[in-house]
Amino acid sequence: MNNEAAESGLDIRGGDPRFPAKCSSQSQVAMSQQMMPSDANPLGNVHGGHIMKLIDEAGGLAAMRHARRPVVTVTMDSIAFLSPVRVGHVLTLRASVNWVGKSSIEVGVRVEAENPVTGEITHTNSAYAVFVALDDQAKPCSVPPLALESDDDRRRWAEAEARQQIRLQRARKKVQ
Ligand SMILES: CC(C)(COP(=O)(O)OP(=O)(O)OC[C@H]1O[C@@H](n2cnc3c(N)ncnc32)[C@H](O)[C@@H]1OP(=O)(O)O)[C@@H](O)C(=O)NCCC(=O)NCCS
User: Fold this and answer.
1) Ligand 1 center from residue 74 Cα (angstroms)
2) pLDDT averaged over every residue in the chain
3) Distance from the alpha carbon of residue 54 to the mean position of ligand 1, in angstroms
4) Is the beta carbon of 132 within 6 A of some atom in ligand 1?
5) Which domain holds residue 146?
6) Alpha helices (runs of H) in the chain, residue ranges in sequence order
7) What is the CATH number of the domain that holds 59?
8) φ, ψ for residue 173, nearest 5 deg
9) What pTM value is reported for the model?
10) Which of 62, 150, 153, 160 is the most buried (most CB within 10 A)?
């Protein structure tokens, strides 16, 4: 925790200290969309790839709101689909910044499907993706620090930091 953070009582981590820190609530995204036949296979099950695209969009928007810069997706962790999503269901994606590095931002996205007729809601999957903020030359640029407000924020930070270390180890192994 830096001095300013200690004075304000906030736990401020990562990012560039020249920018004011932001809480995850300042960049959170909630996005709802009804699934259409064009999103699905002939049996009416929504394509996993379509859901991944929506995860990328919701996650990218949260990262962009944190950085206030354009972002690109550098990686997305593996995703398991826990229950089928059918045409007509309403998909809701909630994206929240978990961790920030210098230019990178990990966003967690929770996906739920609602049957609008019965009201039943199922947890489809959760996903983690890392985005990189870009400057005007399309090079990675620094992002604001993240202010952690709760024990849940601190747990999410610690888990995201551990995941990011594993991703970077894997990426290093691939180039060796
Ligand atoms: C993402 C990209 C800008 C990174 O450029 P780069 O020159 O490799 O930059 P760096 O090595 O400095 O990495 C930038 C950040 O990404 C992180 N990063 C790089 N590879 C990563 C990986 N496999 N997993 C997680 N984070 C990664 C780095 O740790 C660094 O984070 P930090 O600044 O917080 O420390 C570049 O690889 C790129 O343009 N990729 C294509 C992106 C794209 O087209 N996405 C799909 C469409 S949006």
Assistant:
1) 5
2) 95
3) 20
4) yes
5) 15-171
6) 3-8, 48-67, 151-175
7) 3.10.129.10
8) -60, -40
9) 0.95
10) 62
Q: Is the CB of 167 under 6 A from ligand 1?
A: yes
In a domain, residue 48? The reply is yes
Please report the pLDDT score of residue 104 as a whole number.
98
Q: What is the rounded CA–CA span in Å between residue 170 and residue 176? A: 10
Return the beta strands (E) in the chain as ranges: 11-13, 22-23, 29-34, 71-76, 90-100, 104-114, 121-133, 146-148
55 close to 111: Cβ distance less than 8 angstroms: yes
Residue 152 lies in a domain: yes
Residue 6 domain flag: no
Residue 161 Cβ < 6 Å to ligand 1: no
Residue pLDDT, tens place only, 158-176: 999 999 999 999 999 987 7
Span from the CA of 105 to the centroid of ligand 1 (angstroms) = 10
Instruction: Please indicate, yes or no, if residue 8 is contained in any of the structural domains.
Output: no
With a 6 Å cutoff on the Cβ, whether 101 touches ligand 1 is yes
Task: Tell me if 130 CB under 6 Å of ligand 1.
Answer: yes
